[in-house]
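REQUEST ID: PR-0412
SUBMITTED BY: lab tech R.K.
PRIORITY: routine
TASK: structure prediction, single protein chain
INPUT:
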Amino acid sequence: HLRSGDAIYDHFHIRKYGKTSVYHASYLALGLELAKKEQGKVILVGDDIKSLEYLVEVIGEDRVISMGNLRDTSKYSNAELFFYDIFFISRAKVLYGTYSALIKIASIISDKVEIRSSYGSFSDSEHYQNLIHDVSLLSKTSPSQLAFMYFHLYIYGEKQGEECDILVSYLKEALKCDMDNDKYRIYIVDTFLKHQKYQEANEYIKNYLQEGRFIRH
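STATUS: complete
OUTPUT:
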């Protein structure tokens, strides 16, 4: 289950609230790595159907399909699709997901489904290395999904003690995909300060004060 929702889509303000809900949703490359991890039949379920279909295309294996291919979304209301997905995933042998409502309800419906944490399936180092490899592979996904992946690159890169300039580059790439999201700008300044690059932090803020906007490169 690859949840997107408020933490990713650019029409929700919650995506701007620091790391709030950042582990509630699943970045797209996580689905790619989980599909590779499992050797059997894999069905991708989520609320961003286009991204799931794109992921299936990138994986390019018949054993991996999208939920969108199993039912006609135009024939059902959003509420009906919600319950359809819940009962469907409750029949899985193994269900990967976060702590979203669908996962919790599915586990209540069936005590036979084995629930596994999507994020807990990889170490921080593995998350980081996978993202470095996969973000270019998934470059044609939506800007919202790309921004979310670049933010995770920043998060895991910071955990791995990555260099300041590289961390800032991830945040700037996220900004290119979501220019309205000031949290990336705040994290850029924060990263400069943490690495004692005070001149760079001042320069970045000065550009905003003088031009009424943050620099875009």
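NOTES: The longest strand covers residues 94-97.
REVIEWED BY: pending
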